[in-house]
Design goal:
Elements (H helix, E strand, L loop, with lengths): L1 H28 L5 E7 L6 E6 L4 E4 L11 E6 L5 E6 L6 E6 L6 E2 L7 E6 L5 E8 L2 E8 L4 E4 L7 E6 L5 E6 L8 E6 L5 E5 L4 E5 L5 E6 L4 E7 L4 E10 L6 E2 L5 E7 L5 E7 H6 L7 E2 L6 E7 L3
Antiparallel strand pairs: 1-2, 1-24, 2-3, 4-5, 5-6, 6-7, 8-9, 9-10, 10-11, 12-13, 13-14, 14-15, 16-17, 17-18, 18-19, 20-21, 21-22, 22-23
Length: 309
């Protein structure tokens, strides 16, 4: 009888092991599910960071506030491997940059120098994070070395330097500044090898974002009703991508295949929705270009970011 039960248990173990193996193989064969990271408020109080699985519409909070201690966590960015996030929080009384894992755990201040830090952006190799820090009343670009836990100041002029993003090859940082003419913001490029700053595009522009293939630089123009523009790095010419007639204060994010962008925009006085815009469709027929909503729950959404594939 003992031998019978032993053989039955072994058979069951083999069957379970086979089922697990089949599940793993099937899972590896399936395309990765689309997932977004963003900050939102569903009650117009504090902002928290969430992950959204689009295919299953599963919304998971990564940060939470206590009722008696509301805090704001926002401007999240994925690490290139999708295993960590960096974001801004006022949990210590001033805006500072924090690091956490992809589940929102193991949270720690990035630099420990918590005083008006914001707009973090990970380098393509995951080794550095550029961010903005207020210095004597002026936003300056700072560089954080993840492995060494050290910081370096990249700009030092009495001008505004904001919205830093990395070029896809990691060779330069693109940002917005009134470096040449006060209050007139232009897009500049900082060469990481030489530290030389050169204008990339002339004219008023904000919120640059490179396509992953390095061809297009998306930027925003306009004050009240904003428009999306594309600067083509091959021709060094700009074209209108989408005449928005909407309000937004976010830097859009590109899909991994450079085929679309996502962004948050107001739908009324207080609520926003995350939209997706197809690049080829908009370039071919700007007048017929239509954004597609990706979120349906009422809330105030900000800075959606695709999880790296």
């Amino acid at each position: 009888m003992t031998g019978f039960w032993f053989r039955l248990i072994m058979l069951w173990a083999v069957i379970c092991g086979g089922l697990v193996g089949i599940s793993v193989l099937v899972g590896r064969g399936l395309p990765p599910e689309r997932e977004m990271l963003f900050s939102t408020s569903f009650d117009l109080s504090d902002l928290n960071i969430y992950r959204l699985n689009l295919s299953r519409q599963i919304l998971r909070p990564l940060t939470r506030s206590l009722a008696d201690n509301p805090i704001n966590d926002f401007l999240p960015e994925w690490s290139p491997d999708g295993q960590s996030i960096v974001y801004v929080s006022d949990r210590d009384g001033s805006y500072s940059v924090y690091l956490a894992d992809a589940q929102g755990s193991s949270t720690r201040p990035m630099t420990g120098d918590s005083d008006n830090e914001y707009a973090p952006a990970w380098s393509p190799d995951g080794q550095s994070i550029v961010y903005v820090k207020e210095q004597d009343g002026y936003p300056q670009l700072m560089l954080y070395n993840v492995a060494a836990n050290t910081t370096e100041q990249l700009t030092d002029s009495y001008r505004t330097h904001v919205s830093p993003v990395w070029s896809p090859d990691g060779a330069s940082i693109t940002f917005v500044s009134d470096l040449d003419e006060r209050w007139n913001t232009k897009i500049y490029s900082l060469d990481m090898a030489t530290r030389v700053i050169t204008p990339l595009r002339v004219g008023s522009a904000t919120d640059p974002a490179w396509s992953p293939d390095g061809r297009y630089l998306l930027y925003i123009g306009g004050i009240e009703k904003v428009n999306f523009y594309l600067w083509d790095s091959t021709t060094e010419q700009s074209a209108l991508l989408y005449e928005g007639q909407f309000l937004t204060n976010d830097t859009p994010d590109w899909s991994a295949d450079s085929a679309s962008i996502i962004y948050a925009a107001f739908i009324n006085g207080s609520d926003t929705t995350i939209y997706q815009l197809n690049i080829a469709e908009c370039l071919a027929q700007p007048a017929a270009c239509t954004p597609h909503p990706l979120t349906y729950r009422t809330g105030f959404y900000r800075t959606p970011r695709w999880r790296p594939e």
